[in-house]
Automatic annotation (TrEMBL):
Keywords noted in UniProt: 4Fe-4S, Electron transport, Iron, Iron-sulfur, Membrane, Metal-binding, Transmembrane, Transmembrane helix, Transport
Organism of derivation: Pseudoalteromonas obscura
This protein's record includes keyword tRNA-binding: no
Name of the gene this protein is made from: ccoG
Pfam families linked: Fer4_18 (PF13746), FixG_C (PF11614)
Transmembrane segments: 36-53, 82-102, 154-172, 184-202, 329-348
Descriptive protein name: Cytochrome c oxidase accessory protein CcoG
Length: 460
């Protein structure tokens, strides 16, 4: 049986949370997913700097020496083009997920959401339930209130400091960082960044919370561009729920013209953004599913079917079917796949050596005491691995010429070395004033580590 909804009931009545938002703790199917996923992501975040690889830290973003070390590979500043590809892949991946599942990134995997969930969990354990926290904040200051507040903030600060230290372990060797922390030997620069990140974590997760999502984060502002009528979002079934109103559990509410919504307001009390989803989709909604779990609990208690609030697209809410094969979704997926494939090809073709040939433009050539024409060169060689390698230099393109270069060139991992070399040839044997040549630099330890660079040999 369907009820006609009056026009005045369809007018959106904006819900505005005055002051701080006191989030009611909620359990349920979607919250279980959020918690498990949050723990997994936090474990990965903390554990990555501790992964060893060939006796070294597997991932180390050494900004001081301008080297990014990732599983034995050293990425230098001129390799930072890969960052642009990573950002583009992340952007189109996010666009794809958003067009398909709405703001699930915000609700389930965003660091701001995960740390906010952790901080509210601590708050609930120390200060009590939502009603107890409201009562505590309204109460006058006494020893008990001060103790609870100090305990909560102390735990928040410990979490913030641990978070900041874990983050710095990506830029400073983890073992050195923690050893220096326990011996109080942090440098001024390390101390500054750790305490800055700790302060930001403490402020964002403890105080700003939803304001970061609603005001500072640009994603909430342009998300609607990626939505379409088939995007899954948290949806309130107004046709089924209205007219809303309180009632007894076993009363004949339909005879009174009421819908399934009992107006318990739990969907508002659990919302971390402080919105009322019954007023329709709002940009503050982060698709976390808290209101769904709260509403389903209420529906179970009253013996109603669940799904009054659920994940559904606009077409599904209107009784239509949603097609997974739509142009925008396929387009985002295709661009994401192309960028990932490009990154894979770039990584496959990347050689762990970089070199360049530097000429002295003021003296392109000279004639030595034997009457031979000499061309001096400086080879700039970069070892992009994390192991010390030994290289040898050869050249081709000029028959009868002799190369004067070190027999073996030792370069430490991640280091650059300038190597002066000279090519000498009899000028009468060379017909051209500028002859193209190629230098080949290869590692003795691994023949696949080789690079060829073009240059020229000049004569008068």
């Amino acid at each position: 049986m369907k009820f006609d909804i009056k026009e005045e009931d369809m007018i959106i009545k904006p819900y505005k949370q005055e002051g701080p938002i006191y989030i009611r703790e909620q359990k349920g199917f979607f919250q279980k997913i959020r918690r498990y996923l949050g723990w997994i992501l936090m474990f990965i975040f903390v554990a990555i700097p501790w992964i060893p690889y060939k006796g070294q830290q597997a991932i180390l973003l050494d900004v001081a020496s301008q080297q990014f070390r990732i599983f034995g590979q050293t990425f230098l500043p001129h390799d930072f083009m890969i960052l642009a590809w990573i950002f583009m892949a992340g952007a189109f991946g996010l666009f794809f997920v958003t067009n398909w599942l709405g703001r699930v990134w915000c609700g389930y995997t965003c660091p701001q959401t995960i740390w906010m969930l952790m901080f509210t969990w601590v708050e609930h354990r120390v200060e009590g339930t939502r009603n107890q926290r409201i009562k505590l904040d309204k109460a006058s200051w006494n020893a008990q209130k001060a103790a609870r507040k100090m305990t909560k903030h102390a735990i928040w600060l410990v979490i913030s400091l641990f978070t900041a230290t874990s983050f710095m372990a990506y830029f400073v060797p983890a073992k050195t960082l923690y050893m220096d922390m326990f011996t109080l030997e942090w440098s001024g620069l390390v101390s500054f960044w750790v305490f800055l990140f700790a302060f930001c974590t403490y402020g964002n997760a403890g105080f700003l919370r939803e304001k970061m999502c609603n005001v500072a984060c640009p994603y909430s502002r342009f998300q609607s561009v990626m939505f379409d009528k088939d995007t899954l979002v948290v949806t309130y079934d107004a046709q089924r729920g209205e007219h809303r109103g309180p009632r007894k559990r076993k009363s004949d509410y339909k005879a009174k013209g009421l819908g399934d919504c009992v107006d318990c307001n739990l969907c508002v009390e659990v919302c971390p953004a402080g919105i009322d989803i019954r007023n329709g989709l709002q940009y503050e909604c982060i698709n976390c599913g808290l209101c769904i779990d709260a509403c389903d609990d209420t529906m179970h208690k009253f013996g109603y079917s669940t799904g009054l609030i659920k994940y559904a697209s606009e077409n599904q809410a209107g009784g239509k079917t949603s097609s997974p094969f739509r142009l925008k979704l396929i387009g985002y997926a295709g661009l994401f796949a192309v960028i990932v494939a490009t990154m894979a090809i770039w990584a496959f073709n990347r050689t762990p050596i970089e070199a360049s040939v530097i000429r002295d433009r003021n003296a392109l050539y000279r004639v030595n005491f034997e009457g031979l024409v000499e061309n001096p060169y400086t080879l700039s060689i970069i070892n992009k691995t994390q192991q010390t390698l030994h290289y040898q230099v050869s050249f081709n393109g000029l028959q009868g010429a002799e190369l004067s270069a070190p027999q073996e060139i030792e370069i430490q991992g991640g280091k650059m070395l300038l190597v002066p070399v000279t090519i000498a040839a009899d000028g009468y044997d060379i017909q051209r004033k500028r002859t193209p040549i190629q230098f080949t630099i290869s590692a003795n330890e691994d023949s696949s580590i080789s690079i060829t660079k073009d240059s020229y040999f000049y004569k008068n």
